[in-house]
User: Fold this.
Amino acid sequence: MGLRVPSARLRPPRRRTERLLSWPLLARAYLFLGPIEAAIAMALFFVVLGGHGWQYGQMPGAGDPVYMQATTACLLGIVLAQVANVFVCRHPQQPAWRFPLFSNRLLVAGVAAEILLMLAIVYTPPGNALFGTAPLDGNIWLLGGLLALGLAAGEEIRKFVARR
Assistant:
């Protein structure tokens, strides 16, 4: 038998005096998830630079192809972290696996469109010219995906601890 998710319709609406942006929500977004997302983006940035022999103290030029790849990897890290974030933040307390993947088809369509747009930005000449990006190796996508899964695991652990 499958697990039942409490319906939003069964919960009472928030009180009129309750703010939309509460301290716990802001703390979760800016003190927990935000720093993890920033670390993912910067990790990919430095992995690309380091993979091309960059050393601390060197300043690559803005038009340097390696620098463009590194900034593209940083953007990829932000996008992949946000994809993970949207799935784990569907409910503030319940784990993501309690919600069927296709229960919100618009969400899935939006994520698919986001990934397709990212592919166009990274791998097409117009995308490269317009956004100042450069093509990335598949291993950067893989690393970014694994790091994004780490963000998801961290949020699920946080929710588990908060439920206890």
